[in-house]
Amino acid sequence: MGRKNREQGLHLIKRPGSKIWHVQGTLFGERVRESTQTESREEAEILKAKLVEEIKKIHLYGERPKVDFNTCAAKYIREASIKSLDRDECHIRQLSPYIGTLDMTDIYRGEDPDTVQPTALERYVRDRIASSVSRATINYALKTFNKIGRLATEEWRRKGGKPFIESFTRAYLIKEKEESGLVADHGLKPTKEPRPLFPDEQIVLFNELPEHLKPVFEFGINTGCRDQELCNLKWDWLKKIDDTLWYFELPKGSTKNNQNRPVVLNSIAKSIVKSLVGNNPEYVFSYKGRKLGSLNKSAYRKARERAGKVIPDILKTNVHSLRHSFGERLTESDIPWDWKQALLGHNPKEVTWRYSHYYKGMANMLKLLKFVEMLVKYSSLDEMQKMGRVA
Prior knowledge:
The protein folds into 3 domains: 2-61, no CATH class; 69-186; 199-386, Orthogonal Bundle (hpI Integrase, Chain A), CATH 1.10.443. With 391 residues, the protein is mainly alpha-helical. It starts with a helix and ends in a 5-residue tail after the last helix. A 3-stranded antiparallel β-sheet has the order 1-2-3, covered by helices on one side. The protein has a 3-stranded antiparallel β-sheet with strand order 4-5-6. A two-stranded antiparallel ribbon has the order 7-8. It contains 16 helices and 8 strands. The radius of gyration is 28 Å and the shape is elongated. It has helices at residues 2-7, 41-61, 69-79, 85-99, 120-130, 135-154, 176-186, 199-208, 214-223, 227-231, 267-276, 298-308, 321-332, 337-343, 358-373, 381-386, and strands at 10-14, 21-27, 30-35, 238-241, 245-250, 261-264, 286-287, 290-291. Residues 1-7 and 350-360 have low confidence and may be disordered.
């Protein structure tokens, strides 16, 4: 009888090997298993009573449970399976000191109407601006908050199928037209415009690169692959049709848009791949037997700094300039827009290379090969001199 009554309410227990009190039991049909994070029985009893009151408010009075940002963020980190999760976690850690313990319904940008002071989220934005962080970086953090809020209201469910949270206020982003004023008045770091490498800059920069980076940078500017697509490129993904058509079939999960993507190799990219056979059994690009982690590290940055002494505008470029250069050169070569999108991995519906349409797919793959082969001239000093692109 005593055991039955005990199981119908909440009680305190200490788990084997632990000095911490835990609340355990069932109340209004809701199973509870929570740590009080204290060794004091008195403090644990207070926390248990508070928990009982919160559950009563929900079940007897229909009040909405309070869910703070940290709770939602922790659930997001546990359940998300996206490539950008590490970056999202970084922004969550930066947001948490400002809004972590606030109920999701109480978080918004702007001023508090009662105090006429910036809200917690607005203070985060202003502090980041004062730290000379770029608009894009701040907006990414706000987008992460919005993404978590959307999941919590639209997809996540608690007991009874009810939304994890009832509502939240989307954080509005810093718009482009606001940027100039914030840069001048508050120290916001100006957004860098995407910039390609010009042929003369390519020659100077690539000559300054250490030997292990020269192949991957040359490959990148001839294929348009992103940093992590290059660093994670595997031999198993290489496909060959005789010696005519070589391409890597990047699987889902390895690309930004999570779609399969063929990376067709022109003669330069193919020769690079041939030269790297045997360096690493799994990854195409490696250094001292290990895969590359990222291209944007000190070896590249020091090479760019040295090259910048020859051509100062090189300092305005970055690793992503390889991809911008590839896209710019496709445009200069009059590649049709749909095919340019296909080569950049944007998967337009008009371009079909799926194996369900093998012959049409192969014809299109060969067409892609023809287009990327047109970019070989940009790596030839003689051709660039003829075009007047270098002295």
